[in-house]
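User: Can you help me understand a structure? I only have the sequence.
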Amino acid sequence: MSFFSLAHAQAAGAPPGSDPMISFAFMAGIFVLFYFIAIRPQRKRQKEHEHMLGALQVKDEVATSSGILGRITAIEEGFVVVKIAENVEIKVQKWAVQSLLPKGTLKGVGAAGEKK
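Assistant: Let's start by predicting it. Here is the structure, written out as tokens:
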């Protein structure tokens, strides 16, 4: 017999099997990592934004999600009225208020009818 015929006659070794618990632990680890990198920080930002919207008051200076700066002149159930210039007020949905600005910010940028 030749070497080649002996090589074909030998049974192929079975591939090493992996433990299913290791695969499960790996998938669980990836989910936990994804949770701490993506889901948890997003929920935290969402809660902070909801808290900020609940604490809005008249005369607060705000920036909307579209980049408009102004001072709140009225608050309704789902809307706020924002003064963006002298004799110019707009009504926006509350969720569109992106951030609460520190007092005096509008004076520095000349918005909402403030004189420099």
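Now, to help you interpret it: The radius of gyration is 31 Å. The chain has a mean pLDDT of 85. Let me know which part you'd like to focus on.
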